[in-house]
Every structure is written in C-alpha cells, then in structure tokens.
Design brief:
The complex is a heterodimer of chains A (186) and B (54). Chain A has helices spanning 4-12, 14-25, 28-44, 55-74, 101-109, 113-124, 129-136, 140-157, 171-180. Chain A is mainly alpha-helical. The longest helix of chain A is centred in the middle third of the chain and has 20 residues, at 55-74. The longest helix of chain B has 21 residues, at 33-53. The chains are: A mainly alpha (186), B mainly alpha (54).
Chain lengths: 186, 54
C-alpha cells in the first residue's frame, strides 16, 4: 500500500527543493530537470525513507548527488545564464531600507558551488554543520570552514566590515581562514 | 555597493538575513508544469498499483 503521508511530506518540501536546485544550477531549465530526477528517485525509494527523519535533508541529498553526477558527466560548469541571482527582483521593502538584496543576490551568485551550497544549507536552512556535512559527504569541520569562507567572501564582495562576519569563530577556524585568504583564496 | 558602517546593520546579521531571503525568494516560484504533471503521473501510477494489489 502506498504511504501517502510520506508522499505528502515530499510534496510539501518541493518548493525548498526547487530553491535548492536553482541555487545549485543557477539555470531554470537545469533546475527543473534536476528537480524532476530528484522526485523520481525519491518517489521510487520512499519505502526506504525513515519516518521521523528529515525529509528535506533526504531530498536535498538526492538532489545534490544527482547534480554533481550530472555535472561530472557533462564535464562543465553552467554559468548563471538565467541571471538567477543577478536579475532585477522585486526587493521586499525593509523597515529601515538598509538591506540591499539586489547587491546581496549578485554577490551570492559569484560564490563557488561549494560556498553557495554550504551557505544555503547552514545559513538559509538552518542545518547543523554535522547534518550539512553528512549531506555533502564531508566532515563537520570542513562544512564549518566552507560556511565561514563563504561568509567572508560575501563580506568582501559587499565591502562589509569583516570582523563580525564569522558565525562561529574559534581561534583555529579564524586562523585557517585568515591563512587561506590571498589573491586566489576562496 | 559600499555599506557605510554607520548605515548598516551588523555584518553577520546582514548576511544571515540575506541568505534566508535569497532562499525564500527562490522558493516562491510556482512549481513548473512538468513537475505538476510528473506528480500527477506518479500518483496515478501508485493508485493503479494499489488497485491491482487489492
């Protein structure tokens, strides 16, 4: 018998899966293809999904693995041809008018795949370093480093004061990031 | 693009807020028609299989 509650959970997560797919591919057509592949794989394996675990994390993991497998086969990186992050967007009014989302989106679109992915998972979706690391197949420390470097890169691109950018700044992490920053540092 | 120190929130908060809003913006698009068609087809397939099982 079909587990309709798991199906409902999956469907409820699709807007987030679409957003994650767009952030990975930066291309609407590719994001739609990626989403389609993700749904088909997930639907066929819903009986393997453990009830009580995180459906969104499971779907993101499938989407991510599918994306990098496809990317590897294609052997190329797709640019932001649809201007996903640079197009003119309806910027939501902010009470103090200080958040400049257009600049932010443009800067975000310039980050590497690894940094965009890390920031979307941890910064936007609130996954722990452990969970995000597991989803990406890297240790929590590596995920933390990617998040901090991504935040630092964003701060540099937006010309923000950087001393308070780090989310979790222990001495070891700060040292690693500082030592890695150079003309080619990401 | 410069954000003057006296004219901006804390940089960490600015980035946290920006990341959440970028993701929210990307989540607001309607699901594309081919995805809705796919879901309809998958549900119909399951319903057909359940009927056969009965």
């Amino acid at each position: 018998m079909t587990d309709t509650s798991a199906q409902d959970d999956l469907i409820a997560c699709l807007p987030a899966v679409r957003a994650f797919s767009l952030s990975l591919t930066r291309n609407r057509a590719e994001a739609d293809d990626l989403m389609q592949d993700t749904i088909m794989k997930a639907w066929a394996n819903l009986d393997k999904f453990q009830v009580g675990t995180n459906m969104r994390a499971w779907l993101f993991t499938i989407a991510r693995n599918t994306f990098y497998t496809t990317r590897k086969k294609a052997g190329r990186e797709v640019a932001d041809v649809d201007n996903i992050f640079t197009e003119a967007v309806a910027v939501k009014p902010d009470h103090d008018g200080r958040l400049q989302m257009r600049d932010f989106r443009a800067a975000f679109g310039q980050l590497s795949d690894e940094h965009r992915e890390a920031l979307i998972l941890v910064g936007a979706n609130g996954f722990s370093y452990d969970d995000a690391g597991e989803m990406c197949g890297v240790p929590a420390g590596t995920m933390k480093s990617r998040v901090n470097r991504g935040r630092q890169k964003l701060a540099d691109l937006l010309d923000l004061q950087s001393e308070d950018v780090m989310e979790l700044t222990d001495a070891a992490t700060q040292s690693i990031v500082n030592n890695s920053r150079g003309p080619q540092g990401t | 693009m410069r954000h003057d120190k006296t004219d901006k929130p804390d940089a960490g908060d600015f980035i946290n807020d920006g990341l959440k809003r970028v993701f929210e913006d990307l989540s607001e698009d309607d699901l594309p028609p081919q995805i809705l068609d796919l879901l309809t087809a998958l549900k119909a397939q399951d319903a057909s299989r359940d009927t056969e099982d009965d």
